[in-house]
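[Protein data]
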Amino acid sequence: MKTVLFAVPALMIAVPAAAQVMAPTEYVAAAGASDLYEITSSQVVLESTADPKIRRFAQMMITHHTKSTADVKAAAAKDRVTAPPPALNPLQTRLVTELRAQQGPARDAAYVTQQKTAHDQALSLHKAYAMQGSARALKSAAGKIVPVVQSHITMLNKM
C-alpha cells in the first residue's frame, strides 16, 4: 500500500500541467491515456473484487470511459485532428502494475485511491480544454465529459 500512496501524489503533480492550455493533439492524447488508465485499472480490480459497489463502479468506468474515448475520437476527426491511439504514460503503467500486485481488500482500497486522483486529474484536463481549447468539436466534447467525470468523483467520495 505504501507504494501506491507514494505513486498517487506523483500523479497529482501532473494535474497543473494538464490544466494548462494544450494543443488539440495533446488534449486527445491526454484524454485517451486517462480513459485507457481508468478502463485498464477497472479491468484489473474486476478480476478480484468481492465488493459489489466497487464492481458496479468499475463496470461503469469501463462503459463510460470507452464512450468518452469514442466521443473524443469523433470530435478529433470532425476537427481534423490526428493523434496516436490511446496509450498509458509511464506513471499510469506503474500504477496498473502496483494495482496488479495488490490482492483482496488492499487492491480495492488502492483502486479507489488511484481512481480519486485520476478523476481529479481528468476533471482538470477536460475543464481546461472545454474553457480554453482551440478546436471547436473537441471543446464541446470536453465540456460534455466534465459532468460525467464530476459524477464519478461524487461516487468515489462516497466509497
The domain at 2-157 is CATH 1.20.1260.10 (Ferritin). The first helix runs from residue 2 to 19.
